[in-house]
Write a structure and sequence with these properties.
heterotetramer, A: 333 residues, 2-enoyl-CoA Hydratase, Chain A, domain 1, eight-stranded mixed β-sheet, globular, B: 288 residues, alpha/beta, two-stranded antiparallel sheet, disordered C terminus, binds zinc ion
Chain lengths: 333, 288, 333, 288
């Protein structure tokens, strides 16, 4: 999808304008044969400085928009860039093949792995085909089937997370979207192979977590991970969805926040300007991070892997315990 | 459950808690049934386990009421106490809201867990309370569930949980979401040890709780008319869920769709639990 | 369901006529006070002799009709008669609750057991509600869920078989009726608790076998067990469904045949005239047989039970092997 | 699979069998595609793995053709031979029909099993043949599947089965039905040992075979356009199945409904199998 008015974010506009200018000059150079490379170099420097400037002060809401960027690489883009080759597997063996959840066999740096992940669509037709990346129960059951297959044959699992939320239509409710997510959480916690999670874009609530219980959880720099979409939070708290930017800040949904809160293990840096400006480079960085984690995890036994994963999630949450409470009381007294 | 005092709690403190955590019990003598409009005598309603004797509407119950109604008299001992939510996100107004709910309910969080006996069999039991932050699951809620399960694992006891929740505790953000994984992982350990876990889904059981431990019972029971589903009412509204059948997200809808084993009226619940526990427990959890 | 023209089989008619006569006399006795007990006794003796006569020369087709008798006791009738009490469990946790397949917890002679079974309906409305005893994928998945639950808690399983066939509607096909039956066959073969099968009426092909893999397989005297309904066989072989009686004979579908062919372990005798003439007595006989088998099986370990069940089905089938073929060739030569 | 001789069978006997078991190959030079009506040159059709080069219609293949097309050249060794159906029911005409099929196909039953290598990896492989009693499963069919699985268990090899069948062998009555349980139980042992089993569903794969081992593959592949389903055509007709979608019981219908992992054109099948075997086999079955 090429840049166009409809897929450039507001804060990207100054950059886009500069780039349009640079393109114009380049075109003229080609057409008229006049060497304006010095001018171009200056403009490009200017653009890079501008980008650095803009991206150094992104708000959580800006990052939300980047995570949802219409040109952001999706799961299959990474599958193609990360794997030497791959073979998709389909179906939950129960009801259907959910196009919002893909999965299959991949060769990753010469190793056999199973991948699963939500898949968004690029244009309108594809977006509908992929149900906007919102998987139904059958998607989570398909993912579980594939993950169990990986466990059976001792292969690591890589899960790519990118979903606004699980589907909550009448059909999804009636086929047990809650049951499907709950079962995945339970089963994933006990699988005896390495599980690496890569949060690529939107880490939308239970829909994301439904394939998100891993030994290592990586998150791209401008991805978000949230218990509720900022719009939903704003609507509930302040009865005003327009206050989403405030909610995005209050909810602590950025990769940085997730790392600080201990729910992810590593932030994977994106190229200047975001993953969509250089998918290849993003994939290379991600690949390096996954490989490093995979090497570590592959030295562990199945039981150790399950125990490490359990303890990791067991420890999540923050609260005060009795001694701390006593201290507070003492201080207050 | 033909007992005069279905509260079953002797200690003054427990009684006080039970009274406090009952949701929206008006102090007056009379109460109007929200379903059929019948005017009910409050004392009669209590005797009828807070079920409308005309239309069968099941009122919400507080956590301590639930437990009292279910366990053998005077057998409940709370565990996993002394935990209090922090404000890890520095979320606006969160501490004030917690303080208010602590005062009005007498609870330290939206869930109470402990050990008790049911029909003479020792169990771990827990009950969530809608009057505390809408029964939303935050770090303490999750931790209490896990500590309850750990108690069951240590002593090889069955677990019975009354699952009630408006969803995840928004004010604890992503940490709340993680409680879904944390509690479900604990249930996985129960399952691996072949220890029984019975979940009872009561009004309302939605979102993060429904999509985690609540849906993982070996046997799952729902109370009649309970709202049970993935998308909380407001989320579903935002998502514009269409073509809802009349009983959408009700206990009976879940039964039709194969998601719960049975819909059991409150007055039969204790006996049903006793039967199921008898099936699931060969040689575990027999109270001396 | 009381006897009426529509639920009396042709070969039962002479018996029904005699009984109507006896009833008439009894009514007159009550109304008029005339003692005709001697006459009644003679008629009753006559009736019993007639019944013995008729039932001693039943054809396989007659037995098919008895197995499908509209007054024959169904699964829930036996559940009520066999168990001290029972609690139905519902749903497959995936799609729906299949009313053609029931199951639950039962107290059987003081023991905790899990039961599953196809359920037919008595009147038209109930028959539709129960889908004529033809379970869909969700029925088999429900049964498997309950059997796995029984295994988890170390409880024996009693499966009651009574189905014309599994449902083969478009819905059933699209939700994987084949997958559901296949999975049950696979999983049942390896369960580590006792499984006792009681074939009550129609043992209809894969639909029956889908809950029919047991350590002990009992079969009521007038039940049938067949790879294809006689009508279907006749239609395929002779392009004439009216030749069903011939097909019934050729297919060897009676309990006696099944025993001889080694696919069941025991024929449970029915009262004279068939189970529907005395459900209580039938249930008592069945209960004794199940108890005896249960006692034997309960002395075995889980591994022994799985191994016994495996070997039992492993051995099913009849064929000639090389040495036998050599003998035939030698004899021919 | 760019090999000049995709038959891959060097021995004269095997070649002869392969020729004999190919279904309905007319002896003429030309053949008309039953799907698009195109007139196809028989030799070209063979080179194209018996797939119409105009519309992609996949012709049925005989058991030996299947195997030859799939395995490394000259690696197939048949096992579980020397078994012949009896007539346990004394079913009218059964023996004559068997004798006839034995003569026309050169096979002893509707399935052939053995060991071979695929992409250098030793496997157990089996293929059913529609030209022998419509690929129906009787006692020998079931026994051969089980002996194949037992071979795999003994030597820790993966299993690849080309599943093709019109259903159970009616003439062996209830004994045929039991082959469903017998074969599925064997697959359970594979699964418990974590040995991979790949099922390839080819035209037609129905009834008793589809409702047993064919549906139990760790990975399941279907050939384009193959008829795959529970109710055989005649049974479905008798049962009056209504509202059939246009692709009812076709491979693509099964893919849409989540019942197979992929629909794979014949010319890609060997490479796909090699990839899947690579995933499933860590340290098993590497041919020396
Ligand atoms: Zn009312
Ligand atoms: Zn063609």
């Amino acid at each position: 999808m090429p840049p166009s008015a409809s897929n450039i974010l507001d804060f990207e506009k100054p950059i886009a304008e500069l780039e349009a200018e640079i393109e114009d000059i380049k075109r003229l150079t080609a057409e008229q044969g006049v060497d304006r490379s010095e001018e171009i170099a200056i403009l490009e420097q200017h653009r890079d400085r501008l980008m650095e400037q803009i991206f150094s002060r992104l708000t959580p809401w800006d990052k939300t928009l980047l995570a949802r960027h219409p040109r952001r690489p999706y799961t299959l883009d990474y599958v193609r860039l990360l794997f030497d080759d791959y073979t998709e597997l389909h179906g939950d063996r129960l009801f259907t093949d959910d196009k919002a959840m893909i999965g299959g066999l991949g060769t990753f740096d010469g190793r056999q792995v199973m991948f699963v992940g939500q898949q968004k669509g690029r244009d309108l037709k594809e977006r509908q085909f992929r149900n906007f990346g919102s998987a139904k129960p059958e998607g989570y059951r398909k993912a579980l089937r594939l993950m169990k297959l990986a466990e059976k044959f001792g292969r690591p699992i890589i899960a790519f997370v990118d979903t606004p939320a699980a589907d909550c239509s009448v059909g999804a409710e009636s086929r047990g979207i809650s049951e499907a997510i709950a079962r995945n959480l339970m089963e994933m916690s006990a699988l005896k192979v390495p599980i690496i999670i890569a949060i690529l874009g939107e880490g939308g609530s239970g829909g994301a977590l439904g394939i998100g219980v891993g030994n290592s959880v990586l998150m791209l720099e401008y991805a978000i991970y949230s218990v509720i979409p900022p719009e939903g939070c704003a609507a509930i708290l302040w009865r005003d969805p327009a206050k989403a930017p405030e909610a995005a800040a209050a909810l602590r949904i950025t990769a940085e926040d997730a790392l600080r809160l201990g729910v992810i293990d590593e932030v994977v840096p994106e190229p200047l300007g975001g993953a969509h400006r250089n998918p290849d480079l993003t994939a290379r960085t991600l690949k390096t991070a996954i490989l490093r984690n995979l090497d570590e995890l592959c030295s562990m036994t199945g039981d150790e892997l399950a125990a490490q994963r359990y303890q990791k999630f067991r420890a999540m949450g923050q609260f005060l315990t009795m001694p701390e409470l006593a201290e507070i009381d003492a201080a207050a007294g | 459950m033909a007992r005069d005092d279905w509260f079953g709690l002797k200690s003054g403190k427990a009684r006080k808690l039970a009274r406090k955590s009952a949701d929206a019990v008006p102090d007056g003598l009379w109460i109007k049934c929200p379903k059929c409009g019948e005017i009910l005598f409050n004392k009669e309603l209590e005797k009828n386990l807070r079920v409308c004797n005309k239309c069968g509407y099941h009122y919400k119950l507080g956590a301590m009421q639930r437990i009292a109604m279910t366990v053998d008299e005077d057998t409940f001992e709370e565990i996993a106490t002394g935990l209090r939510p922090g404000n890890p996100l520095d979320f606006p107004d969160y501490e004030d809201k917690l303080e208010k709910d602590r005062k009005t309910t007498g609870l330290e969080e939206a869930i109470v867990v402990g050990t008790a006996a049911i029909g003479g069999r020792r169990v771990v039991i827990g009950a969530a309370d809608f009057t505390f932050r809408g029964g939303s699951m935050g770090s303490v809620y999750g931790e209490k569930i896990v500590q309850a399960v750990e108690k069951a694992l240590d002593e090889r006891l069955p677990v019975v949980l009354f699952c009630c929740s408006g969803g995840a505790r928004m004010q604890e953000g992503i940490l709340s979401l993680m409680q879904m994984a944390k509690t479900s992982a604990a249930i996985a350990r129960m399952s691996a040890e072949k220890l029984p876990y019975i979940s009872v889904l009561v009004d309302p059981c939605t979102a993060g709780v429904h999509a985690s431990f609540a849906s993982l019972g070996d046997v799952m029971i729902a109370e009649p008319g309970a709202l049970i589903g993935f998308a909380g009412a407001r989320v579903a509204q935002q998502a514009g869920v269409i073509n809802r059948p009349p009983n959408f997200q009700q206990a009976e809808f879940q039964l039709d769709n194969g998601m719960v084993d049975m819909v059991t009226p409150r007055k039969e619940l204790r006996q049903t639990l006793i039967k199921i526990l008898q099936f699931c427990c060969e040689d575990i959890g027999n109270a001396a």
